[in-house]
Specification:
By secondary structure, the protein is mainly alpha-helical. It is built from 7 helices and 2 strands, in the order H-E-E-H-H-H-H-H-H. The chain has one domain: Tetratricopeptide repeat domain (Serine Threonine Protein Phosphatase 5, Tetratricopeptide repeat, Alpha Horseshoe), CATH 1.25.40.
Length: 190
Amino acid sequence: MVAFKAGDNKQKIELQKIIEQINSIELKPTEKKAESIIAIEPTAVPEPDEISVDIKEEEHTKPQLIQKTKTDKISQKLRMFSKNSEKPENPLNLAEILFLGGYMKEAAVFYQQALEQIKAGDPKSSRDRVWILLQIGNCLKTEDAETATKMYRQLITEYPDSTWTNLAKAQSKLIGWYQTSKPLQIKMTN
């Protein structure tokens, strides 16, 4: 649970609602269903006023639309909280929820706040610090490759014996490869 300083009851309630909404979202694999059917049944001598049209809407269309609208609203509120000057007392919990929900930019903001609360070299919080450095890199690797690489290198330098160090090295190399080879821009020639 994310805790706020005294006097932030409204924000605390809004944030709790957002967290509940995030937790209530059920992600199910989408199956390709038959498209909407429009059936036109003409009469013997069709006149424009005599044509009846049956529109059958698939049941899955409305829930997906509602789910997308709900997700967009949650995303908008999360962006508002990530830009807010008031910082939660435990941003790591919120960052984890955002990361698991796929809100990478927003999660990175709260991971950064959590990192600022932990002193480098503090043996009691070294596990959290390693994880936070890794997660900041993971959150930013597609949007801000330079900062992601910086976080991975910081993890490698500060914690060379960590179980996450090899993953940070691999991610850093992968980012470097993408930057130099630009595989998404390679065109196939015949």
